[in-house]
Design a protein that fits this description.
The structure holds two protein chains of two kinds.
Chain A lengths: L2 H39 L2 E3 L5 E5 L2 H4 L3 E3 L6 E3 L1 H33 L3 H16 L2 H12 L4 H8 L13 H26 L3 H8 L4 H12 L1 H16 L3 H7 L6 H9 L5 H32 L2
Helix pairs in contact in A: 1-13, 3-7, 3-10, 4-7, 5-7, 5-11, 7-10, 7-11, 8-9, 10-13, 12-13
Chain B lengths: L1 H7 L5 H22 L16 H8 L1 H32 L8 H13 L2 H21 L10 H24 L3 H9 L4 H30 L2 H6 L7 H8 L6 H25 L4
Helix pairs in contact in B: 3-12, 4-7, 4-9, 5-7, 7-9, 8-9, 9-12
Classes of the chains: A mainly alpha, B mainly alpha.
Chain lengths: ~300, ~270
């Protein structure tokens, strides 16, 4: 490279950074920067009325799993915390699996529509995705409530005599999360199926494969990157869900997100809340790293 | 040929499942909208068509204030995030790979990756610290105001504004700008007269997306707002703890309507020309 070329490259890099600077400043001020403060707070001592005392302590991190008995000062495993973690993990996994089970046929259906119709079907999936999460959760709340649509239909058709009380249970949270996160599963699945060469199906059938064999041996392995992308896109927000468990779990069925809030509001244990936030962040980042690895792999094998 | 390919791609039960999914996706929203026109106070019994709940929502000062606040925050957040995202898009596209490019991408997309509750808690702590500090140096007047919410919203709107702008830039024809430069246009003139008009649809699309995202935010607003700074979604969240009346349905329907209008416009703007 000549000196002149090198100068041009250097100038280009400088311009790129200068142009990106305002965005970076806003992001560091109100997105990335504050996360570092949370990390610091997780190593401080809780204050009497919330907030923190500026003394080093690992209590926040220890408090994730253990709690100290008020009388004996003994450290015991915090069952209540474990229940919340387990519930978050279980409900998120269940949501991921179920959105896949119903999302895959939906994505397949859209991808096999005639080209003209396809945009409309995609638009129909996208609209709920962009509409207010709170409103969608509230809509589910109305369907599930005791005198809501679900019970009206069930009792009207004589399936049950007494209303089923689903609201404020884990089932309600599961239904709600499946409902609000479904588009996140369908969209990447559609993208993967859209690239799928349908001639492979003919080849499969020509070789006497059954429909089930074609599905298992041909379709699923090829669209695997889409499955992984969709699963992570659903799992990550499910694990950090706050609005859905609050509106549909009614404060009784907490997930990690609500548990974090509790530490900052009523719990008055900010370091524990900060440590929980960091833990959630680490899990989410790990899941996203897997996503990036698979997403890159997918694009390199499929052009 | 096309007929046969279509048949081959059909899998048993898939179409039925898909139709059920679409119905299940829209039925709750339609129910919510329908009950906003319910004359009865109950969410269960249909008492005939009426617009009473809209009138009631319209007369509710809290709803009015929250609506205006939401619109102000969304407008500022959309304007700020679109401006900085446009600059960042100009900086990161259409040039050869440079040092730190990945870092900038990660930073821009960071709000999409970090769970909202974590950002919310982080901002609550940081803004709290800033407010204490401002009070201690005698500038307590700056501890209220919408600035904090606008800053928070601007940050998480950046990736949404950036995406369509970047897509537009990447699809743009470089030769037009080269031609302008050949005709002795200054870099600024080229930008102002060629690049910017070509980029405008992407910027409008980005701004609309940012506006919708800001308008919909619940979690971060809930943690950052000071007392009496409810936006429409946080007001609704607060109401959901109390007695539910179709008034929430009316408010939801209005917000839903606004979102759908903006989104439809967005899709028409970004639709690929065939």
């Amino acid at each position: 490279m000549s000196a002149a070329e090198e100068r041009i490259v250097r100038q280009s890099t400088r311009n790129a950074w200068l142009l990106s600077l305002p965005a970076l400043i806003v992001l560091i001020a109100a997105a990335s920067g504050p996360l570092l403060i949370v990390l610091v707070y997780s190593f401080l001592t809780p204050g009497q009325h919330g907030n923190v005392v500026w003394e080093f302590s690992t209590g926040g991190w220890v408090g994730i799993l253990w709690s100290q008995d008020i009388f004996t000062q003994e450290w015991v495993l915090a069952d209540a915390h474990l229940t919340i973690f387990w519930r978050s993990l279980w409900l998120s996994l269940l949501t991921t699996v179920f959105t896949f089970v119903v999302g895959f046929p939906t994505a397949w259906f859209i991808a096999t529509r005639p080209l003209k119709e396809r945009a409309l079907w995609l638009f129909l999936i996208t609209i709920p995705f962009w509409t207010n999460l709170l409103i969608r959760t509230y809509a589910i709340n109305e369907v599930l409530r005791k005198e809501g649509l679900m019970n009206t239909v069930l009792m009207g058709t004589g399936i049950t005599d007494t209303p089923i009380e689903v609201l404020y249970t884990q089932t309600a949270i599961f239904i709600g999360m499946t409902y609000v996160y479904l588009p996140l599963m369908v969209l990447p699945l559609f993208a993967a199926i859209d690239r799928f060469d349908m001639r492979l199906l003919e080849a499969g059938y020509d070789l006497y494969a059954s429909r089930m064999q074609v599905l298992r041996r041909v379709i699923l392995p090829i669209v695997k990157p889409g499955i992984i992308a969709g699963s992570i896109l659903v799992f990550v927000p499910s694990l950090g869900a706050y609005v859905t468990p609050r509106v549909l779990g009614g404060g009784k069925q907490m997930m990690i997100g609500n548990f974090i809030e509790l530490q900052f509001l009523q719990g008055k244990n900010w370091p524990l809340g900060a440590a929980l936030s960091m833990l959630l962040l680490v899990i989410v980042m790990a899941a996203l790293l897997v996503y990036v690895r698979y997403a890159n792999k997918g694009s390199s094998t499929h052009g | 040929m096309a007929e046969r390919a279509f048949h081959v791609a059909r899998l048993p039960g898939f179409a039925t499942t898909a139709i059920i999914v679409f119905v299940a996706l829209y039925l709750p929203i339609f129910t919510l909208v329908a009950y906003s026109f319910n004359a009865s106070t109950s969410l269960a019994v249909w008492g005939g068509f009426s617009l009473d709940w809209y009138a009631k929502a319209w007369d509710n000062q809290q709803v009015k204030d929250a609506t205006i606040r939401s619109l102000i925050i969304a407008s500022f957040a959309a304007a700020i995030s679109t401006t900085v995202a446009t600059m960042a898009a100009l900086g990161t596209t259409r040039r050869r790979a440079f040092k730190g490019q990945t870092l900038i991408y990660v930073a821009i997309n960071q709000p999409l990756m970090v769970p909202e509750i974590v950002t919310a808690v982080a901002l609550m702590i940081v803004f709290g610290l800033i407010k204490v500090w401002l009070t201690s140096i005698g500038m307590g007047g700056l501890t209220t105001g919408l600035g904090y919410l606008i800053l928070a919203h601007s940050a998480f709107c950046i990736p949404f504004a950036y995406l369509p702008i970047r897509a537009r830039l990447e699809g743009m024809d470089l030769t037009l700008e080269t031609a302008a430069a050949d005709l002795y246009a200054s870099p600024w003139q080229t930008f102002r007269r060629v690049t910017l008009p070509l980029l405008a649809p992407g910027m409008i699309a980005g701004a609309m997306l940012a506006f919708v995202i800001s308008l919909d935010d619940v979690v971060i607003t809930e943690f950052v707002k000071s007392g009496g700074q409810d936006t429409l979604p946080t007001y609704m969240l607060g109401q959901m703890r109390r007695q539910l009346t179709p008034e929430i349905n009316a408010v939801s329907t209005m917000l839903l309507g606004l979102t759908v209008v903006l989104l439809t416009a967005f899709f028409l703007l970004t639709r690929k020309k065939t």
